[in-house]
Amino acid sequence: MGDLTELRRNWGWILAFGCISIVAGMFAVIYSVVFTLISVLFLSGMLIAAGVIEAVYAVGHRERGHLVWHLVEGLLAIAAGFLLLQSPARGAIVLTMLLATYFVVAGIFRIVAALALRLPNWGWTLFNGVATLSLGIIVWGGWPVSALWVLGLFIGITMIFSGWARVMLALALRSHHLRPVAI
Fold first, then answer.
1. What's the pLDDT band for 2 if we cut at 50, 70, 90?
2. Where are the alpha helices (DSSP H) in the chain?
3. 137-159: buried (b, 16+ CB within 10 Å) or exposed (e) per residue?
């Protein structure tokens, strides 16, 4: 119950963060090409940083063994990061193809699971699978042109939905209509 009290005290911050997320998400949707490139640059920086950390860890803990494996992993991450940094547009093309492939495969698995298992409310899982598969086909069908905007669009949509979820949580916290759920 203490966590709920803490959340109630900070409902204003949650509301503000939700509103900021909605506005940023709208910018990401409107300027999806820019946000696609920003996301690729961010990913490249994360890969380079992770690679450096992995390499430093490998050298610092070489007496434990597996030095070569950790170094190779770190160098691969650094190389992938620099490749993305060298050409963010090509990186977006590759990432979009990977994302489209994931959506197609995940959609097929969800459809098969829904039809095979028929768990309670299995129609929602089937709908999720069909929607995911359709999204993958749409992205794949528009590839490579879709690579210029799809990552930014998806980031924007996610930020908008996440922002609205936070806004609704903040409003519920403010009006104290939340009841703790026993798990």
1. low
2. 2-9, 11-30, 32-60, 67-86, 88-117, 122-141, 150-174
3. eebbeebeebbbbbbbbbbbeeb
Contact present, 139 and 96 (Cβ < 8 Å): yes
Digit-coded pLDDT (tens) for 25-63? 999 999 999 999 999 999 999 999 999 999 998 888 777
Max Cα–Cα distance, the chain, nearest Å: 58
How many structural domains are present in the chain? 1
DSSP symbols for 143-175: TTGGGGTHHHHHHHHHHHHHHHHHHHHHHHHHT
183 falls within a domain: no
Whether 107 is covered by a domain: the verdict is yes
As given in the structure block, the two tokens for residue 72 are 């190779």
